């Protein structure tokens, strides 16, 4: 069957107008936020129901057509990129909140619900959906689950996985599985729900998710502290963690801060220039807690770890301090950064960062290297910026040369080559630095069970 006939057949499975093949749609829906790959899907399908998703998957099996799931397309590992003539399955029209249960504190969402929409719904009901990151205004719940999204509050609330009470998925064979039925306790064998979280759509597509909510935090208060050097950040973390229940502990380098301040729409936290900055957050529910935070700050200054600092006194100031961290990724996207998203256990962070920084500075003295990330949970983002004049492909090729060295170091520290951005195509060829050969064999065997014909997002996580 030729490709026109295939697309005509696909159209019969969906409502009229819900399969697009125009150039602009192929370009938009064929990619995520990664910039290494040119989008080249053959069509974009927009199912509205679970039955339509099942019909698409069954058709794909019958016709050997590769499918790529697509959410808010904010991913950074090319897990949602269709670069090889695949059919993209967009969940834009499966975007409804189906139920809210105040007693269970759960929300039943279709996969296309935007993260912010869920956060707002929680807030309107006096509750809180705690997984948060800069792209929450466009990322979708299905994508968050598919990548087990992390973000800025992991130190307190964990990753998306912690908040998934139940899932409905269409497997690669077109079967509908109802996983965990939203139960808190359910000791009935394998928890298949967990397999689909972070699977990047390689085992099946999420068609419904029940998300848990938490109590709303009270009087969130942020501090930005300028540290004397990188080595001071971890003692600062320990000092504050010993005294306060932190909701966030982020860090960024002076170079990252300079890029954000260069936008001109975010105020500097204070005048003192420091090589590194920590942003921490806690619930200042009593005056005592705020006093403890200030006393801990003073202790850190006395120790010589902290050079200057500021504590938010209003919602507006809290928001402005967060912008210093949250705007980094979008701001530096202008320089087409080569991104790394690596993690180690928290105790290993200082030695690990020093080693990686030495490798990168030695190999790339001419490139701008920026550090930022979720240091409180051991997740560091290393970004190398492309010089304006340099060709994009040449730049990525040059950066890739150092991957082996960086990932060898990750392996040495028992770390992860992808803490929260996923594997997709970007990290696929490096999976063996985080997973053993025998573990990868088991993963592939699992893929073969759920997707025997290899139609579900092939070429992501591993090259099948
Ligand atoms: C972040 O922490 O800002 C996000 O993971 C995005 C990025 O790393 O650029
Ligand atoms: Zn991050």
Automatic annotation (TrEMBL):
Cofactor: FAD
InterPro entries to which the protein is assigned, alphabetical: FAD-bd_oxidored_4_C, FAD-bd_PCMH, FAD-bd_PCMH-like_sf, FAD-bd_PCMH_sub1, FAD-bd_PCMH_sub2, FAD-linked_Oxase-like_C, FAD-oxidored/transferase_4, Oxid_FAD_bind_N
EC number: 1.1.99.39
PROSITE patterns, per the entry: FAD_PCMH (PS51387)
Domain FAD-binding PCMH-type intervals: 37-216
Keyword annotations from UniProtKB, A to Z: FAD, Flavoprotein, Metal-binding, Oxidoreductase, Zinc
UniProt catalytic activity: (R)-2-hydroxyglutarate + A = 2-oxoglutarate + AH2
GO molecular function terms noted in the UniProt entry: (R)-2-hydroxyglutarate dehydrogenase activity; FAD binding; metal ion binding
Keyword Iron: no
GO biological process: respiratory electron transport chain
Subunit (UniProt): Homodimer.
Protein family membership: Belongs to the FAD-binding oxidoreductase/transferase type 4 family.
The protein's name in its UniProt record: D-2-hydroxyglutarate dehydrogenase
